[in-house]
Amino acid sequence: MLTTLKGSAGALLLSGASLTAPLALATEVTIACGPGGDSDMCPELAQQWAEQSGNRVNVISTPNDTTEKLSLYQQLLSSGSSDIDVLIVDMAWPGLLDDHLVDLSRYLPNDATEGFFPALIDNGTVEGRLVAIPWYTDAGVLYYRKDLLEKYDQQVPETWQQLTETARTIQAAERDAGNADFWGYSFQGRAYEGLTCNALEWVASQGGGTLVDDAGEVTIDNSHAAQALDLAASWIGSIAPEGALNHTEEESRGLFQSGNALFLRNWPYVWKLSQAEGSPVAGKVGMAPLPHGSQGESRATLGGWNLAVSRYSEHPQAAAELVAYITAAPQQKVHAMKMGRNPTIERLYQDDEVLASNPSMGELYEALRTGVARPASVTGDAYARVSNAFFNRTHRVLSGEETGTQAVEALGKELERIGRRGW
Ligand code: GLC
């Protein structure tokens, strides 16, 4: 059964009506995860677990927007609701939600996380408690139209400046050739977690740091960060539509996949979808590391999703088993091959079938190795406020309400205030 959870916790739809008759001793586990469909295989894998284990599963689809998903979880968890047993959680959230999550190592055998990237297991471990198991991992990448770069004799850009110029040139030429809706660059500019990911890439790849460094010092108030934000603001209305100010991953993919953008910044899941039957850009897309600033190196923000069990679950054992099933190697392999979701188990990057299904998996491994983490571990339960402050300030710069310099100065003060008593 698939129900939808959106808006507020009050809108939680858990209609028992369509449930099949209870099986003897079967436990019903409710999992809140992705929307399924084009996006991930959560509903399908959860159903498989139910069939194989003789339990029942209720899949709740949550909002696509990462920030909305977080507020929904915060409402539910702070009320101690037992409505949800398993949750899909962003890799940036273990330190925010850990008080509400069980220690999975109490329920699972020791080898449940064997072969996983140690850094991802560390990310899901808070104060010695394994609160989340990594399911798939993400890093920002640049998609480009190889046919158009060839047509206009242009190179894949290595710097943001080159991206800006190439986008401008080809956008003008394509518009002259009759496509009035064509844009140079598509990215996620809405005021939400995705903008934090984009802006961190601009800033870090211009040598402007990561907002808060590993020692907990606020570092954002610097001229490199200001320049990076100013350059991004110059894109709005010139190489990117005003609408980008409200784009999340899927809207930005839509613009690119419809054939109306030259470059796209997004996560690896776009690859398979862009090559799918009926995609107007199938066979015309290339993937490259993100550009860097004039003063830095390419930095892809690290992302990805974990599965966790709510502390308020009435069935933590069955819930933990569902988590272990979905995140186990055979299921991760299918997820990688069918949906291009990057495994969190290292050996799958050497698996011939995985590599054959997605030739860029090897390159992605490199982006994952050198990626930049959001300052989530160091800021712990203040991370949501840190990220909110960053994406809101960045959004103001993109909207032309503030300059980069004003924004980083104000943001520096705001972050100092948030972290005043230590993180
Ligand atoms: C992707 C990433 C996730 C990030 C989100 C932002 O889903 O995997 O870590 O927070 O995008 O929109």
From TrEMBL:
One of its GO terms (cellular component) is periplasmic space. It comes from the Bacteria. CDD domains: PBP2_TMBP. InterPro entries: Bact_solute-bd_prot1 (IPR050490), SBP (IPR006059). It is found in: Periplasm. It holds the Pfam family SBP_bac_1. Keywords: Signal, Transport. Residues 1-26 form the signal peptide. Gene3D superfamilies: Periplasmic binding protein-like II. Its main location: periplasm. Belongs to the bacterial solute-binding protein 1 family. This is ABC transporter substrate-binding protein. The lineage of its organism: Bacteria, Pseudomonadati, Pseudomonadota, Gammaproteobacteria, Oceanospirillales.
